[in-house]
């Protein structure tokens, strides 16, 4: 017989008032409380708490407090992950984030869902659908990532976007609902590489 947690992670209907899930939630609340009470002098301790909270991390990660999540143990982040203030991740479903991903302030990832039918919903049944974010992704401030979404590699998501459908690799996307605006191409690389070179020239020759 499946546990409520197994049902939850399989994307099936489940009840959250289960002892195993309550235990995982209490652990998450404790670790996030400790994390959010840290000071800027406690960078190593912050990293230690995040590594304990998450299912998997890279060696380098940084989250600016405050941070909130449901369980934490269903979140995996790759190398060089950064999230700015007020990040929220509701990890009822798995959340898998790749390498070199940056979140601006108030990015929210929401895997949790509730039945459309009110009578079923008020009886407490809910479900979760996983979210996946690829490598080299930048997500702008106040963006909302909805359940079941996959965001590809080398993507920029504009601020205030509500992402309801999958986003392919190598694009700029924005809006509510979020849609692809254009591809990221060689001219982007040339433009930003030239600016980077000018920056280093100025630093070398003040």
TrEMBL record:
It comes from Enterococcus larvae. Gene3D superfamilies: Hexapeptide repeat proteins (2.160.10.10). This is Acetyltransferase. Belongs to the transferase hexapeptide repeat family. It comes from the Bacteria. Signal peptide: none annotated. PROSITE patterns: HEXAPEP_TRANSFERASES. Residues 5-59 form the Maltose/galactoside acetyltransferase domain.
């Amino acid at each position: 017989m499946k546990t409520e947690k197994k049902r939850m992670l399989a994307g099936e209907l489940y009840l959250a008032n289960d002892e195993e899930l309550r235990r995982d939630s209490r652990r998450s609340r404790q670790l996030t409380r400790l994390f959010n009470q840290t000071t800027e002098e406690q960078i190593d301790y912050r990293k230690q708490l995040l590594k304990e909270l998450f299912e998997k991390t890279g060696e380098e990660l940084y989250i600016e407090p405050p941070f909130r999540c449901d369980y934490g143990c269903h979140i995996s982040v790759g190398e060089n992950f950064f999230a700015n203030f007020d990040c929220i991740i509701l990890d009822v479903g798995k959340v898998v984030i790749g390498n070199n991903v940056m979140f601006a302030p108030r990015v929210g990832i929401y895997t949790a869902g509730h039945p459309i039918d009110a009578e079923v919903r008020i009886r407490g049944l809910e479900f979760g659908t996983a979210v996946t974010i690829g490598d080299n992704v930048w997500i702008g401030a106040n963006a909302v990532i909805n359940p079941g979404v996959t965001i590809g590699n080398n993507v920029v998501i504009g601020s205030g976007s509500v992402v309801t459908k999958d986003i392919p690799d190598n694009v700029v996307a924005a809006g509510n609902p979020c849609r692809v605006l254009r591809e990221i191409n060689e001219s982007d690389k040339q433009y930003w590489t030239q600016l980077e070179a000018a920056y280093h020239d100025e630093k070398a020759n003040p």
